[in-house]
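Operator note (shift B, R.M.): manual run for Flavin-binding monooxygenase AlmA requested after the automated queue skipped it. Running by hand, logging everything below so the morning shift can see what happened. Input copied straight from the record, untouched. If output looks odd, do not overwrite the archive copy; leave it for review.
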Amino acid sequence: YNFRPWTGGKVLADGASIKNYVAETAKENDVERHIRYGVAVKTADWSSTDKCWTLTAENEQTGDQETYTASFLVGCTGYYNYDQGYKPDFLGEADFKGQIVHPQHWPENLDYSGKKVVVIGSGATAITLVPTMAEKAAHVTMLQRSPTYLMPLPSTDKVTLALQKVLPEKTAYRLTRARNISISRLLYERSRKSPKAMRRLFLSVIKRQLKGKADMRHFS
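Run finished. Output pasted below as returned.
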């Protein structure tokens, strides 16, 4: 939030850091008292006569029905099914001796230390999981249908950390945000205008980093 700049040095913050940031921001701004946790909205009805929304909800702990009214209703539910994420039927799954885990319902006590792991998919979730799991697992394989073009980034944003030392917090935040937006726009525009050139650029960076340790066909 621009009123409470993110001061972490990581380029891609971990889930715990993001959760703490959101929770602390909500607490500082007295937002928590307006939040109802563990409540599943069942229906939302609009009344033109009363000019308001009426929501019927269920308290997931007690099972009690609750009713809320509002002049405005904003749906920020995302596109996931939070009760059960999509899970395909894998041939021979019943005979599999290992554990099958859906990232959306990650067990807190999951221990994959020293184990062989296969991550199905190559989207944002897989790209986040693979390097993290590789730190503890015996071996991690990404099983993908279509490669995703990647560009490695440093884990720590040294420029941002340097700006935070010499500039006011909000000024450093604005400059960092402007820089990141500019880089994203530039990459998008160049990819649209010269896709082949950008493809060569991405692959050349990956090739230099891999130093022949992996077949480039997995990235193209």
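Quick read of the result: Residues 15-70 form one domain. The chain has five helices and five strands.
Leaving this for review. - R.M.
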